Amino acid sequence: METNLSSYLSANRDRFEREMVDLLRIPSISTESQYAESVAECADKIAADLRAVGIDEVEVVATAGNPIVVAQRIVDPAAPTLLIYGHYDVQPVDPVELWDSPPFEPTERNGRLYARGAIDDKGQVHMHIKALEARLATDAGLPVNVKLVIEGEEEVGSPNLALFLAANAERLACDAVVVSDTGMLGKGVPTIATGLRGLAYMEVHVQGPAGDLHSGTFGGGVVNPANALASIIAGLKDQDNRVTIPGFYDRVRDISDADRKNMKQLPYSDEAFMAETGAPELDGEKGYTTLERIGFRPTLDVNGMLSGFTGEGAKTVLPARAMAKISMRLVPDQDPGEIEQLFTDHVMRLAPTGVTVEVRPHHGGWPWAADPSHPVFDAASAALNTAFGREPVYMREGGSIPIIPLFEQTFEAPVLLLGFGLPGSNLHAPNEWIDLETYHLGIETIARFYDAVAERMG
Amino acid sequence: METNLSSYLSANRDRFEREMVDLLRIPSISTESQYAESVAECADKIAADLRAVGIDEVEVVATAGNPIVVAQRIVDPAAPTLLIYGHYDVQPVDPVELWDSPPFEPTERNGRLYARGAIDDKGQVHMHIKALEARLATDAGLPVNVKLVIEGEEEVGSPNLALFLAANAERLACDAVVVSDTGMLGKGVPTIATGLRGLAYMEVHVQGPAGDLHSGTFGGGVVNPANALASIIAGLKDQDNRVTIPGFYDRVRDISDADRKNMKQLPYSDEAFMAETGAPELDGEKGYTTLERIGFRPTLDVNGMLSGFTGEGAKTVLPARAMAKISMRLVPDQDPGEIEQLFTDHVMRLAPTGVTVEVRPHHGGWPWAADPSHPVFDAASAALNTAFGREPVYMREGGSIPIIPLFEQTFEAPVLLLGFGLPGSNLHAPNEWIDLETYHLGIETIARFYDAVAERMG
User: Fold this and answer.
1) Strands B198-207, A198-207: pairing kind
2) Looking at per-residue confidence, does A314 or B308 come out higher?
3) Closest chain A residue to B207 measured between Cα atoms?
4) Does the ipTM exceed 0.90?
């Protein structure tokens, strides 16, 4: 059985990669409405791929937004049941001119496949599909029941998922939820993510004069909305890079001794992190290490900012308006709805006279931390150890998957974050890539994980 | 003679307007290199128009940049000589979607002609051409010598004009310089501008990480260049809207009692100014009135600002870089070169760790104030009074014409700013316009000004 599975995985490496390329070709961008057709095409493709590997019950379920692919293979009602969650939608590609190869023409360079969605999250969804294929196509067989929910709105905050899960709670009942949408600490360092940050994403719009004005004729007489916006943004953090919004830190948990001890053991260095980012120097909230700042501390970042004339040359305009997109990453037990309100109140306090300020929230998400004592974590450790030849590390992720707490609540089951993205994968940025060696080790990990689950949770 | 001139002006109103439309159709944008051909076409058109009205010596002079149209009509070496300066280049048109009619398809609505360059400055150059026509085509004749310098690089800081004027100082020698590139305090309120602000125009570029990063995976660990830029901009002004750059105000002249008295007499109201701007409230440097803030005080305005993702939706990116265009309007005796250096030094002091900051100067310009005791001011007053039926007001303009001090120095002659733009003309903004009634009164003023000059300076 063992030999059979291993040789099947080896024998089909090239075909697996070609099939992933086919999936990555579809521009399933959910944040821009003109891609709706490609999003739907991608859902159908995922469904077809699942059917092709032998998942017998597959359905593309329409929602008020993008469709959700739901599938299952029940091998034995008495066996443990895993619910696999992933998403087939992707981030936008701007600035597209910074891509070295077109984002939807997957291109291999130096053992990496470059494409939008390569690692976030279509490539990782594809690992699950291929792991299922390897079990179902060989005499290894499937020792657990598997259910899949692959959605198309993760990058826009999963607005229709909660309703869907609630309405299908019984049908999707499971013993553990598995999500492969996170990263590894380094190549060859298998990693289980034990926490995620939450998110509050806001837009601040500042309106000054009714239209753009000549900066000479009017400059000094009216308040400049871009200067006003800069003051507002500057007023959101202090010199120590602490967020100044009153109440912002009230619910933030202290970092435990166990967490600090675990962090010290991680194969991590600031030098390597700095090299990965290309930043001239690392800095952040005073009094914390980089790993603490990213895993255990909330932050506030401008994601985008626009006002006035930004083209070539020197236009002497006093702009009518200015806009910023500002997001905050949250940690347990911050409440995104509360943070949105605190942010809005503080921005309004910071707004100078002479301009009109409007604050609009985008989607938010709750922070989350795992309880790694559940046997599903031990099962994952064993599978990772077998595939990668090394015990996994446990670490907090800085990113957000707002629906993780939702799964935990809906199914009263633990969530396992079994991710295979490498540092510098450029998710949400130009030149996103997946490491092909890790891709195949991920497939092997998942294929072996079923046995580990059957042993420990059977 | 008098009747002849008046009736000629009345009889040719429609044709004058049609000819102005032809001039405004040419997209002579000097700030964007792809319009170079239209800029050259516009120079030729000005030259042709001058020849057509009877200016016998006309030349289109090539420079390292855009050509300069030079022309003259010497009627009597003993008569006073006026040097008319104007510019045929225009500002860019973005955001073009805010124009109610295309910027280079001049459109008349409610007595106004809408087009880029309608008032700044092609429409006003056209007034001079038509005033010359009216004198030369009638038995009124021309009682003074007229020289013209119409350049094509005013909107990019006139980089080649200084060299040209120095090289042609003898050929262009004159008793007074006349420039129609400023505005009137209100419709029917003839205005002579007695001061202009100078300009220092800077770009600030902030570089954080080498490329855009995921704001979750990296947020908190590296310094965000957009947040950094906002802090820098906010640090350039204090709560009282005073510029905080050390030394910025050192050379600023106090406002004289005579200037304060003159301002009190101007037909001006904050309410009307506010309505014109559409700002929700007026505010500016503490301790000064709006007229003082615009005419006598320097300021600092963001003209444009850009970073990260500014499209539809919520992209969770930590941007690699952020940029702002920031200009300062200067007043006597501030020195633009010195201010550029003080600005740069202060920005570098404000720059936080973790980012790389670069400051680049664009073109600058000296501030200027007139000596209104010269007889050319009295001549202009008389002509304006005759045409408009009202004594002109004297006031400081907030805008900049960086080459005015240059003319004063090169020719050791006074500069008269005889402008006809009305408030709200949207120069440098969408929907720029010229008031057609004022256009014709402007032509009449200039046509009568020649006599007033001959009488007072002959």
Assistant:
1) unpaired
2) B308
3) A279
4) no
What distance in Å separates residue B223's CA from the closest CA in chain A?
6
Measuring CA to CA, which residue among A388, A403, A355, A451 is closest to residue A179? A403
Q: Can you read off the two tokens belonging to residue A34?
A: 């003109």
Between 2.40.50.140, 3.30.200.20, 3.40.630.10, 3.30.70.100, what CATH number should domain A2-196+367-457 receive? Answer: 3.40.630.10
Q: CA-CA distance, B325 to A306, in Å (whole number)?
A: 12
Residue B70 has a pLDDT of 98
Mapped onto helix, strand or coil, the DSSP state of residue A113 is: strand
DSSP category for residue B352: P
Q: What is the DSSP string of B294-307?
A: HHTS-EEEEEEEEE
Contacts A99 to B, Cβ<8 Å: none
Asked if B100 reaches chain A (Cβ–Cβ under 8 Å), the answer is: no
The answer, yes or no, to whether residue A1 has pLDDT greater than 70, is: no
| DSSP output for A330-357 | E-TT--HHHHHHHHHHHHHHHPPTTSEE
pLDDT bracket for residue B313 (50, 70, 90) = confident
Instruction: Please tell me the total number of residues recorded for chain A in this structure.
Output: 458
| Separation CA B263–CA B265 (nearest Å) | 5
Q: Where are the domains of chain A?
A: 2-196+367-457, 198-252+298-365
Q: Give yes or no for a contact between A166 and A403, defined as CB atoms under 8 angstroms apart.
A: no
In whole angstroms, give the CA distance from residue B332 to residue A145. Answer: 82
Q: Within chain B, how many helices (H) and strands (E) appear?
A: 13, 18
| Topology adopted by domain B198-252+298-364 | Alpha-Beta Plaits (3.30.70)
pLDDT of A428 strictly over 60? yes
Q: Is A226 on the interface with B (CB under 8 A)?
A: yes
Q: Note the pTM of the prediction, 2 decimals.
A: 0.82
Q: Which CATH architecture has domain A198-252+298-365?
A: 2-Layer Sandwich (3.30)
Q: Which of A241, A198, A236 is nearest to A330 (CA)?
A: A198
Residues 107-166 of B with CB under 8 A from A: 156-157
Which residues of chain B make contact with A199, given a CB cutoff of 8 A? 216, 316
List helix spans (H) across A266-303. Answer: 270-277, 290-295
Residue type, B407: F
Q: What are phi and psi of B71, to 5 degrees?
A: -150, 160
